[in-house]
Amino acid sequence: MAKKRIGDKAERVLKLLLGLRNKKIASALASRGFGKEDLEEGLSLLRGVTDVSLAVLPPRSPNPAVIEQLDRWENEWFPVANATLLRHYPEIHARVFLNLSQTAGAAVVISVGTFVERVAELTRAEGGHGQAGKDARKLLQRRGLTPAVIAEAKELLEQVSSIEDEPAELPDLEEENARLAEAEDAMWAWYLEWSEIARSAIKDRNLLRRLGFLNSSRRAPSTITDEDDEDDEAEDAAEPTPTSNAA
Question: What pTM does this model have?
Fold first, then answer.
């Protein structure tokens, strides 16, 4: 049987901790010395695994709300510029929309950013468009693509840039993975100890099921390992079904 993943182990620990809300389970473990300190230790070890896991997550992606606003901007103004330039200034259209089309998701950051830069080049001497570029820009303004509208796109693009630059330096993944392995081992050692004690102290199958395991009556108790923690379904399937004797 494959070794349990850290998520599976955390789920087992959580199920055991939640099961302790049952008075019968709590009483049975209390008779074996389980107290408040043991409960707090289990909770702390579980939180430790979660905290370390979150520390190795990659930086957050751009704010979805900003991406959505950029997408709406693109959907409104790309068609206007495309239709206007294609009819009146086809050569300029070819340069503005070279390898450029409407996109979706985070890709709008690239498409809108490229479009805004190319529109700005229409009136620059170094843009190479000459008077035709200036005339094309004036026509786009009459269509509604004013400096204020362009400024709106630039502001959104700046928000995306600031979000991307915001995260601090990335954690040392090798160090974090070592911490995660240490936290996992500590949590699982706590679980193995108290799950074995629980199996020994509790005989009610319903209570054992609530805790996430069942103690087979067909073998003597043994040390629990990663490979020896059957689920309820397998245990129930192996349990003989009672039958009534014919009179």
Answer: 0.45
pLDDT tens, 163-212?
Answer: 444 444 555 667 767 888 888 899 999 999 999 999 999 989 899 888 88
9, 11, 105 from 35: Cα distances, Å: 22, 21, 52
DSSP 42-70: HHHHHHHHHHHHHHTSPPPPSPHHHHHHH
What contacts 159, CB < 8 A, 6 or more positions away?
63, 66
Burial tier of 89 (Cβ tally within 10 Å: 0-12, 13-18, 19+): buried
Residues 47 and 68 in one domain: no
Residue 39, domain member (yes or no): yes
* CA dist., res. 235 & res. 215, Å (int): 9
Report the C-alpha gap between 82 and 69 in whole angstroms. 20
- When divided into structural domains, the chain yields a total of 2
Is 111 part of a structural domain of the chain? yes
Q: Give the structural domain span for 93.
A: 64-165
Under DSSP, the state recorded for 221 is -
Residues 43 and 88 placed together within one structural domain of the fold: no
**CA atoms of 161 and 163, how far apart (whole Å):** 5
Please state, in angstroms and rounded to a whole number, the distance separating the CA atoms of residues 82 and 90. 10
CB contact at 8 A, 171 and 51:
no
